[in-house]
Amino acid sequence: MDDQKDIKRDTSMNRRDLLKVVTVIPASALLPLGAVAKQPAGMMHPQAAPAAAQAATTPAAYQPKVLSGHEWRTVSVLSDYLVPADARSGSATEAGVPAFIDDWLDFKRGRMLDGIRGGLTWLDIESNRAFGHDFVDCTEMQQKETLDRIAYPKTAAPEDAAGVAFFNQLRDLVVTGFFSSEMGVKDLPYLGNQMMMEWNGCPANVLAKLGLNKA
């Protein structure tokens, strides 16, 4: 990916943009996050390693319900490309997003699970075709090159339409999972769900902006 299209570009701006996605996701999608699962042995993406190390020391680590070990690793890598750690908070895997995705797919099953699973297979097929390795075993540069084909729908090739649809769906799940986690709520920062000693009504400046008169 080039500098302008790098998925890991300025994450403070990325997260503000990702909030636009959160606002259109049904509230029913905001499920509680499970603990971060222990990563299977084998090659780990550098960004996924901190979360995996943390999970390894957790007594009751999350156990995937529907994702295989290989699928779990792939989802973890993709999640951290979409929401990497920055100065404000940790990465998607550190927030438990892969567990959220697995739990949600277990709840939904059917076409959504088939779509995500098919997309992960698509990534491996294309990565093997281009680089001779599954997606998670490719170098970071190779992974970016593959993702660059499907991360930008307007410039994607017609033959990559299936990959684009998968990546859009996964991105929605990752964003929903991150910003409904404890870490993501702090990252916003979300100002709701706070106790108030008294309620004096909507502030006058807000009413004025809405063109309403305070009673």
What does it look like?
The protein is mostly helical. It is 50% helix and 0% strand. The protein is built from nine helices and no strands. The N and C termini lie far apart (55 Å). The model is unreliable at 2-13 and 15-59 (pLDDT under 50).
Layout: helices, strands, pairs:
Layout: H1 11-22, H2 49-56, H3 69-82, H4 97-108, H5 110-131, H6 140-148, H7 161-179, H8 182-187, H9 204-209
Helix pairs in contact: 1-7, 4-7, 5-7
Summarize this, please?
The chain has 215 residues and is mainly alpha-helical.
Comma- or semicolon-separated keywords:
about 220 residues; mainly alpha; 9 helices; elongated; disordered N terminus
What would you call the shape? elongated
The biggest sheet amounts to: none
Secondary structural class: mainly alpha
Low-confidence stretches: 2-13, 15-59
Count of separate DSSP helical elements:
9
Give the mean pLDDT. Answer: 75
- Quick one: how many beta strands? 0
Task: Tell me the distance between the termini.
Answer: 55 Å
Order of helices and strands: HHHHHHHHH
In angstroms, what is the radius of gyration?
Answer: 19 Å
Relative helix content: 40-55%
What amount of the residues lies in strands? under 5%
